[in-house]
Amino acid sequence: MAPGHLSVREMREDERPLVLEMLKAGVKDTENRVALHTLTRPPALLLLAAASSGLRFVLASFALALLLPVFLAVAAMKLGLRARWGSLPPPGGLGGPWVAVRSSGDVCGVLALAPGSSAGDGARVTRLSVSRWHRRRGVGRRLLAFAESRARAWAGGMGEPRARLVVPVAVAAWGVAGMLEGCGYQAEGSWGCMGYTLVREFSKDL
Fold first, then answer.
1. β-strand 196-205 against 164-170: which pairing, if any?
2. Which residues contact 196 (CB under 8 A, 6 or more apart)?
3. pLDDT for 106-156, tens place per residue?
4. For 183-194, how does the pLDDT look when each residue is reduced to its tens digit (9 = 90+)?
5. Domain map (residue ranges) of the chain
6. What's the half-sphere exposure (Cβ side, CA atoms, 13 Å) at 99?
7. Angle CA(119)–CA(121)–CA(123) in degrees, nearest 5?
8. Cβ neighbours of residue 165 under 8 Å, at least 6 residues apart?
9. Rounded (5°) CA angle 195-127-144
10. Which residues cross the membrane (predicted)?
11. pTM of structure
């Protein structure tokens, strides 16, 4: 599917269930990799070992004491990721959410934007997901180009000193990071837990 066969428009209310399923599927594709990346860091392994040691005095089963902290940690991490990226944010100052639509009418991607937290921060991508059946066909790049055009228009209308777009990416989403770097974005910051990166932020001056 060529990018020229795609259009981007605001999401209709009847498309909300489909878009939510797309977002949840996108999170599900990366949550296991994020959990594995996080729980194999030395501080996390130390905490899990300490929790297992403590549970051995309470639980009769050694296997249960070993596995329960891991299960709870993975479940908490997955719930956190789904709450953050698996739902639709309320409409912000930049409008949306938007969907990418094929010429056949099939919705194949979703995008949401929000203003930065302070003046000069530009716009932020808060949701960007492509249906697994339409990946590697230019949908992500088309949505990113649309986000850049919206960010430019919003910055001009608000009298912002510069137009800028920031895209947060989970550390395990290597495909998205590669697409952003290919489009001229640079990694500028990150946030995580216990000194280990969970999300990298890519930005571009437009």
1. antiparallel
2. 38, 41, 43, 44
3. 999 999 998 877 766 788 998 898 998 888 888 999 999 999 999 999 888
4. 999 988 777 666
5. 6-26+87-205, 41-85
6. 22
7. 110
8. 122, 123, 124, 125, 147, 148, 151, 203, 204, 206
9. 105
10. 55-77
11. 0.78
Cα–Cα nearest to 80, from 192, 195, 203, 194: 192
Residue 70 in contact with residue 77, Cβ under 8 Å?
Answer: no
Q: Which two tokens stand for residue 120?
A: 């000069």
Tokens for 151? 């960010």
Name the token pair of 43.
Answer: 């501080």
- The CATH superfamily holding the domain 6-26+87-205 is Gcn5-related N-acetyltransferase (GNAT) (3.40.630.30)
pLDDT one-digit tens code per residue, 58-98 = 887 888 888 888 888 878 777 777 776 667 777 767 888 99
**What tokens appear for 56 in the block?**
């051995």
